[in-house]
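Lecture 7, part 2: worked example. A protein chain together with S-adenosylmethionine.
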Amino acid sequence: MNKKETLILESTTLWDFPTQNYGNKPHGNNKYNGVTPAFVIWNLLQRYTKEGDLVIDPMCGSGTTYDVAVELKRKVECFDLNIVRKEVKKADARKLPLKNNIADFVFIDSPYSDNIKYSDDKNCIGKISCENNKFYDELEKVAIEIKRILKKNKYMAWLIGDQWIKRKFTPTGFLLFNRLIKHFEPVDIISVTRHNQTSNTGLWHYRARKFNFYLRGFKYLFIMKNTKS
Ligand SMILES: C[S@@+](CC[C@H](N)C(=O)[O-])C[C@H]1O[C@@H](n2cnc3c(N)ncnc32)[C@H](O)[C@@H]1O
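Predicted complex, written out as structure tokens:
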């Protein structure tokens, strides 16, 4: 662990982590496009799981959830369409090869739109723009699948950001939230500060001021409970 990077259980709804990783070992791969800050998953697993619990990540990418869960002695199953390491199994998040009601916790950091190319797989939801209703239809199918595998009264957390592109704002987070509350009970909404994104340059800050728009400063982390039948 680097001195600066003390692991703290967050106590407010504003989470701001200076780096993607903590400690000296990698958690996921910070070169993977859209990699999740490992601290987010660490905080969630500390709060909502205990040793031996089964954690699932249906869109695990470079395996951040896998690494954090193993370190915390949780059981873990990870899936993605884009396979970059052997611990992550190939599956579509809308049809997971898992039985009903087996997960103690689900974490998911889904595509936010079609801004990142994850793979050539035609089923990648990251090929659909968040300006299109189909994007939310497909994410809702993922939510229904999460509900199927999650035990009753257990928790899931979903990380997502809004979009501002070509002078158009899309409240992706709110639009997804509207779908999620059809299936889950909201527990809380965390604002996770965005760092190291490609637009975090002097030129982009100048443009944001000059042309009267805002750079994305945070992502939503929706924490939800599986109370509904
Ligand atoms: C934001 S990234 C996840 C990053 C990951 N948490 C990490 O730390 O590396 C979103 C992931 O969703 C995956 N994905 C998109 N559509 C999918 C689908 N239908 N089923 C499974 N994975 C999908 C992409 O391949 C990508 O890896």
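Residues 28, 32, 34-36, 58-62, 64, 79-82, 92-94, 109-111, 118-119, 123-126 surround S-adenosylmethionine (CB under 6 Å). The beta strands are 14-15, 54-57, 75-80, 88-90, 103-109, 150-160, 163-165, 168-170, 185-193, 218-225. Keep this in mind for problem set question 3.
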